[in-house]
What we know:
Elements: H1 2-18, H2 28-32, E1 34-47, E2 50-57, E3 65-68, E4 73-80, E5 83-94, E6 97-101, E7 109-116, E8 120-130, E9 138-148
Antiparallel strand pairs: 1-2, 1-3, 1-9, 3-4, 4-5, 5-6, 6-7, 7-8, 8-9
Amino acid sequence: MKxxxxxxxxxxxxxxxxxxxxxxxAGTGTLxxxxxxFMKQVSVLYQSTKEISTFxxxxxxxxxFIEYYNDGSGYYSKSTAQGPSLSEFTxxxxxxxxxxxxxxxxxxxxxxxxTITSTGLAVHVVQLVQDPNDPTVTDTEVDDxxxxx
Length: 149
């Protein structure tokens, strides 16, 4: 009889333990939601494999930000002489890749999330662009963005 009670008590505690909810670590999709302020932009322009231009920007204002919402939409704000310029976009996340769509015709710009924490975000982007000096030539632009909350 004594062993039955011990067995029942063990089964009872085993059931309680198995019902314990596991807390999941915050994923990229959860961490990305919110407003991110630009801290640094490093851009390099290549024609074929030759570097033709590079610049670094760190003088951003509070009007320079990107904001991601839970529903897959967001806003990009850039300061201009006339005030902030807002652009709406949608986005999808797959692993460490976030793809932003600015219109239904846009195939999306794939960006690689290099690091993401609750207070910092670093993104790497490679895209084909028209050469600023010759629109018939396609260059490769490589951008690295650093954001903070």
